Automatic annotation (TrEMBL):
Highest taxon in the source lineage: Bacteria
Residue span(s) of domain MobA/VirD2-like nuclease: 49-151
Region described as Disordered: spans on this chain: 351-371
Compositional bias (Basic and acidic residues): 352-371
Name of the protein this chain belongs to: MobA/VirD2-like nuclease domain-containing protein
Length: 407
């Protein structure tokens, strides 16, 4: 289980974030502690604020008296509401907030159901609850609760190398959020040296990225749109502009990330591990499926691109452990498309058949490959999906905190 703790000055902001989820039927109030209870059972922002106000009024000196906590069990840990309530109650007691007013929300807007808790750091006497080493204490509490409730240990998940991205499943709906859960971390933390390597990685998680050009108000623009793919690699739903997912998923930001990636790949020598693994697996594998399976066990996936005749004209590798995606040709001639086609492709293809689809002009460097036509080795692993609305909320609270200190 992972706990995230943030502090702020506005009780309204913390409550509004969670009540917005309530309005969308994406959350529910699970339990409260020392809060004013409504007659109709519905907790409004105003009523909740009334519960916290006496504590906040008792100490005006504390800069950031509001605490907002999220508790995130592993997706495989299926807890009912009673267990979730016990988990929250024990966590708050051990953190030193057992006698504080707090409200617990269960969020259900992503597959990984999790808790959000809003409280205040000022006790009923006006004394501030000390938060020195709070994060370290929180980690110890999480390890203890994992044992008490039989939860998957967070450190064990990291040792096993569970991938933190989950393929889009169009049948589940809410495609915008599903796509966001893929493109935001990929554009920010993965290493790729061309737009097509970026596209290949996204396609592995059932997301298509497309460059768009046009003119707006007499000025040319160059952007990116994203769309969901079904398991056949076909677009489903409406395309969504990159601006809906933040600046880091747009054209200019991707160009910057490509340059940063080149430095990372060179400085950290990211090619060495996959090159060694692929070379060994290639020479001992019996067939294409065996090759894919053996790579997967080493944390590497491969996407072969084939034309209509079944000829392999390209291969892209995804090193999940190092968050590194690259075309096989970058590792040398021994990993070129011809080599893989001779070993795994359709026999007796002519040179005329060895053609990749036409490409339009792109400002992205090394843009030689087409969109992915065949997804090889697509797997489904439980993942700790990120709640990016929560992350954005935490960043807003931090910005407010910095602004207040500056003033």
């Amino acid at each position: 289980m992972v706990a995230k703790i943030s502090s702020g000055s506005s009780i309204y902001s913390a409550l509004a974030y969670n009540h917005d989820k309530l309005k969308k039927d994406a959350a529910s109030v699970l339990m409260v502690n020392k809060m004013i209870e409504p007659f109709d059972g519905k907790y409004s922002i105003g009523l909740c604020t009334s519960s916290f106000e006496p504590y906040l009024s008792a100490n005006k000196r504390t800069e950031n008296p509001v605490i907002h906590i999220s508790l995130n069990p592993d997706p495989k840990d299926k807890l009912n509401d009673e267990q979730f309530s016990q988990l929250a109650e024990q966590y708050m007691a051990k953190l030193g907030y057992g006698n504080q007013p707090y409200i617990v929300y269960k969020h259900e807007d992503i597959d990984r159901h999790h808790l959000h808790i809003v409280s205040v750091k000022i006790d009923e006497t006006g004394k501030m609850i000390r938060d020195n080493f709070q994060h370290r204490l929180s980690m110890r509490i999480c390890r203890e609760l994992e044992q008490n409730f039989g939860l998957t240990p967070a450190n064990e998940k990291q040792k096993k190398g569970v991938y933190n991205l989950k393929p889009v499943e169009f049948e589940k709906g809410n495609l915008k959020q599903q796509i966001a859960n893929v493109v935001r971390p990929v554009s920010r933390t993965w290493n790729f040296q061309s737009f097509n390597e970026y596209k290949a990685l996204l396609s592995f998680y059932n997301v298509q990225a497309t460059e768009v050009r046009g003119e707006k108000n007499g000025k040319p623009f160059h952007g990116i749109v994203y769309a969901a793919l079904d398991n056949k690699g076909e677009v489903v739903g409406n395309p969504i502009k990159s601006s809906k997912f933040g600046k880091l998923t747009g054209h200019e930001a991707l160009l910057t990330q490509i340059e940063k990636s080149r430095e990372q790949i060179r400085n950290k020598k990211l090619k060495e591990r996959p090159e060694d693994v692929i070379f060994k697996v290639f020479h001992k594998s019996e067939n294409r499926k065996d090759f894919e399976d053996q790579l997967f066990k080493q944390g590497i996936s491969v996407l072969f691109r084939e034309n209509d005749s079944g000829r392999i004209y390209g291969a892209t590798f995804i090193d999940h452990k190092q968050k590194f995606v690259f075309n096989g040709s970058r590792l040398g001639k021994e990993f070129s498309a011809n080599v893989f086609n001779e070993r795994f492709g359709v026999e007796n293809n002519t040179d005329e058949q060895f053609k990749s689809p036409e490409q339009g002009h792109s400002e992205f460097p090394d843009n030689k490959d087409s969109s992915i036509e065949n997804l090889a080795g697509l797997f489904g692993l439980d993942a700790l999906g990120e709640d990016y609305q929560e992350e954005a909320f935490i960043r807003r609270m931090k910005r407010k905190k910095r602004k207040k200190r500056k003033n």
